[in-house]
Amino acid sequence: SYVLTQPPSVSVAPGKTARITCGGNNIGSKSVHWYQQKPGQAPVLVIYYDSDRPSGIPERFSGSNSGNTATLTISRVEAGDEADYYCQVWDSSSDHPVVFGGGTKLTVL
Amino acid sequence: EVQLVESGGGLVQPGGSLRLSCSASGFTFSSYAMHWVRQAPGKGLEYVSAISSNGGSTYYADSVKGRFTISRDNSKNTLYLQMSSLRAEDTAVYYCVMGYSSSWYDDGWFDPWGQGTLVTVSS
Q1: What is the pLDDT of residue B106?
Q2: Best mutation site among B58, B110, B118 for testing chain A: the one with the most A CBs within 10 Å?
């Protein structure tokens, strides 16, 4: 089955840029969606179709996807961005159609 | 505003059964596929089950196949997950999630998510 690999943790100082990667075999050929989950809350969609932003999500959140890596970029990081972030794809080649990455804990220093 | 409200979680003994419900509002429920995603304590997200908008097509993860049954009542705007032969490893928060289209299998995103309901399987 298809595997998505995320770093367990990323730390960044306020005002700096955080980059959270999601690795997968030829992930650039798939559409990647990103979710933010704060403690005790349900996940929230922050990026869909690699780089589109839902209404209400700050422009500081952006995404890219190429080759074997998709990246969620958070510019001008704020304390309120501290959360777990998950990438997700659909995989048509296996019996496990929906794949989530293991999640990345973003810590704002 | 789209709202999804899960209910039915609780403590159940191994081997027991439980039925989760998800009440939907704010959108045309009968036009969208629906999904269940779970999250074990301190763990990541796991895709569990899905159903097409008319209920004619369903999906189950291998981990729950033969034990869980997904269904929906479009007249009541409600999604269900009947869980039986529960195991300790089924302990998780179960989220009801709106699909992107009428088909459960598409390339779309999951949004929004309900607040989740906790299922604890323990003796």
Answers
A1: 86
A2: B110
